[in-house]
Specification:
With about 270 residues, this protein is α+β, with helices and mostly antiparallel strands. Helix content is about 15%, strand content about 25%. The chain has one domain.
């Protein structure tokens, strides 16, 4: 997954009320990592990672932001819990590639978690550019564990996304029943978000605006959470703007995304996280 794209998802999962413009998101130095995300209306770039040098669009150690709360936000911070077992970046990349069988892959990026390190290692992630023959897409999955009991935020509500419905953004919540694969059941949140263009930039035709589709599955019994992000663009995410869309729809539909995250490929990751 593009390095700068990693960052975006990170920032999206780390702050409650920030709505930075795209040029800020995509400029500056980036450190690897990723923390929590708050579903919000900002169409800023979403990739996989953990955040924090915000002005520089940077990522820092996930644990550093836990417990922080953005000024003016009405949401309490969502606390993460240490994963139960280590997951390597290579495992994450392999699982992502298996999620998109038959595709050609490029720009592979992975990050391991580290349960033995209390100051970081909360999140594992993997991402690639995938081309299934219908156009390239930047895709990635992150894995973390939320502290129980589950609270609002962190892929569990659509409060702010609904405020931008006029821009074509959508968000839906659903639940999966308890089963052998999902003891206790799971919460599912799915979004479609249009990328916000930098403030002051020239208007962009709708056909040139990139979108991201995000599917988050959270196990109610353990707090283990997987989040799949699919962009309808790929390539160089630098230079202060997103590449033009390379396809109309994401590689996986919402139903397919949920089936993938709750299937055999990701079962070992869910087990290791929670």
């Amino acid at each position: 997954m593009p390095f700068e794209a990693d960052l975006a998802h990170a920032l999206d999962r780390t702050t409650d009320s920030l709505e930075p413009d795209l040029s800020t998101f995509l400029s500056g130095a980036v450190e690897r990592g990723r923390s929590r995300r708050r579903r919000r209306s900002a169409g800023a770039i979403a990739g996989v990672g953990a955040c924090a040098v915000i002005a520089a669009a940077g990522l820092v150690i996930p644990g550093a932001i836990i417990g922080t709360h953005s000024a003016g936000s009405d949401m309490e911070p969502v606390a993460l819990a240490m994963p139960r077992s280590a997951i390597s970046g290579a495992q994450m990349i392999d699982a992502v590639k298996k999620t998109f069988p038959g595709s050609r892959f490029a720009k592979e990026t992975g990050q391991s978690n580290n349960p033995s390190n209390p100051s970081g290692g909360w999140v594992a992630n993997g991402g690639v550019d995938a081309n299934d023959g219908h156009g390239a897409a930047n895709v990635g999955v992150s894995a973390l564990r939320l502290k129980l009991p589950l609270r609002d935020g962190e892929g569990l509500n659509c409060d702010n996304t609904a405020g931008r419905a006029e821009a074509g953004d959508t968000c839906e919540l659903s639940e999966l029943p308890s089963s052998a694969a999902l003891p206790g059941g799971a919460l599912v949140m799915s979004e479609k978000i249009a990328a916000r263009q930098p403030i002051g930039s020239d208007p962009v035709p709708d056909s040139d605006i990139a979108h991201r589709w995000t599917t988050t599955v959270t196990l109610k019994s353990t707090g283990a959470q997987l989040q799949l992000v699919q962009w309808n663009t790929a390539g160089d995410f630098g230079g202060g703007s997103l590449p033009k869309p390379t396809r109309d729809a994401p590689p996986l539909s919402q139903k397919q995304a949920v089936a993938a995250l709750t299937g055999a490929t990701w079962a070992p990751i869910l087990g290791a996280v929670g």
